[in-house]
Specification:
heterodimer, A: about 190 residues, mainly alpha, about 0% strand, B: about 210 residues, alpha+beta, Glutaredoxin, 2 domains, seven-stranded mixed beta sheet, 9 strands, about 20% strand
């Protein structure tokens, strides 16, 4: 219940003209703040669904496979530079963004992540993080301007941001794995 | 049987998601709005609004005056030191090729450089023309006198100009070809070989 309220509140705050203007003015906040927050809002709401709803969805989402596929497809679209430009000129596409990210990226991720199991999660992370890093590096290093509505300097900043985020996440996950392993080794048998 | 329903759900997700990605990227050809613009124009040539232009000598004209002759257009501003400089250099090469190599029976390609900078006066355009050795006839430099008409023209071409806050602009740059009907028919990259520009222009011009 609380999660649902929190999710709706986040979407509502992000949809305010002032916050849209502020976050979409820069490519880095558009890509790395607004879009992830929309997904987080959907994830919070989905995690707070009543158990019988979750069970009904789970019947179609064995081991989280269909859910993670949905998340991967929807989130990959919102990494396409054209999508970022498009929402700035089209209210329809802006609405699609505000609906699709919570419902079809964040929510299925929250409902599938645990069910994926260690191997599945590792597979997703090992595919997604390098992709983010490569996209970030391309944005930062390529001489091509990918968005017509953003200055090339902003593209460089967004690229460095994406690269940094993926490296930081990789380090954090690696560090956590190391800690967990050493904790297991330290346990008396 | 959850796995069967999951397989069905996954199939639906992949088919629907794949179809939407296919549509959103014009068959995976357009990952950027610039590519999307080029695909859309090549598929559906666009009408060009009739806009009052003024050339480097202060002479008024419109693009309709070319009356079906082949035209290559670029959008620039004269103080630009980056992308328009490359674009105008390409136009200089096209101009030279058209002048020296002959046109083998076809009409000579007309070149028009349109400035989107309100600071560009005919005097500035004349200086710019001189810098690129243009004759001012086969290669003309123009500004749009009315700023509302300029916005209309840029919108028709999907040219996005954003001030960078330091007195310069960033904008999408390309070679635009008009067909016999005066419609915007093709958009080519800056670094295309002049011969290919002429051939593409001829192919849209029948």
């Amino acid at each position: 219940m609380m999660g649902g309220v929190a999710g709706a509140l986040i979407v509502a705050l992000l949809a305010l003209p002032a916050s849209r203007e502020a976050l979409e003015r820069l490519m880095i906040t558009h890509m790395l703040v607004q879009i992830p927050l929309l997904a987080v809002a959907g994830g919070l709401a989905a995690a707070a669904l009543p158990d019988n709803w979750k069970a009904r969805i789970a019947a179609w989402n064995d081991r989280g496979i269909s859910g993670i596929l949905m998340t991967l497809i929807v989130s990959s679209w919102w990494m396409v530079p054209r999508a970022l430009d498009w929402v700035l000129v089209s209210p329809v596409m802006e609405t699609v963004k505000f609906v699709s990210l919570p419902l079809f990226a964040g929510a299925p991720l929250a409902l599938s992540w645990r069910k994926l199991g260690g191997l599945g999660r590792g597979f997703v992370i090992a595919n997604v993080l390098p992709m983010w890093a490569v996209v970030g590096w391309l944005y930062a290093a390529a001489p091509v301007r990918v968005c017509n509505f953003y200055l090339v300097e902003q593209q460089v900043v967004a690229g460095i941001g994406l690269l940094t985020a993926s490296l930081a996440l990789a380090l954090a996950l690696g560090g956590r794995a190391l800690l967990l392993t050493s904790a297991q080794l330290a346990e008396p048998h | 049987m959850p796995w069967l329903r999951t397989a069905a759900a996954s199939l639906v997700v992949c088919v629907v998601g794949g179809a939407l990605l296919w549509r959103g990227t014009d068959g995976f050809r357009a990952l950027t709005s610039e590519q999307a613009r080029r695909v859309s124009i090549a598929r559906n040539p666009r009408a060009v609004p009739v806009v009052a232009l003024e050339d480097q000598d202060g002479t008024a004209f419109t693009l309709a005056a070319y009356g079906g002759e082949p035209v290559a257009l670029e959008f620039i501003y004269t103080q630009c030191v980056s992308v328009c400089a490359m674009l105008s250099e390409e136009f200089r090469r096209i101009d030279r090729a058209e002048r020296l190599n002959g046109t083998a029976g076809r009409e000579r390609l007309n070149l028009v450089s349109i400035s989107f900078d309100p600071r560009d006066t005919p005097i500035r355009l004349r200086e710019y023309a001189a810098r690129y050795g243009a004759d001012g006839r086969h290669w003309r430099f123009a500004r749009v006198r009315d700023t509302r008409e300029l916005a209309k023209l840029l919108r028709a071409f999907d040219i996005v100009v954003i001030p960078d806050g330091r007195g310069d602009y960033q904008h999408n740059a390309a070679i635009h070809l008009l067909d016999t009907g005066g419609r915007l028919a093709r958009v080519l990259d800056i670094n295309v070989d002049p011969g290919e520009v002429a051939r593409t222009a001829a192919s849209t011009w029948r």
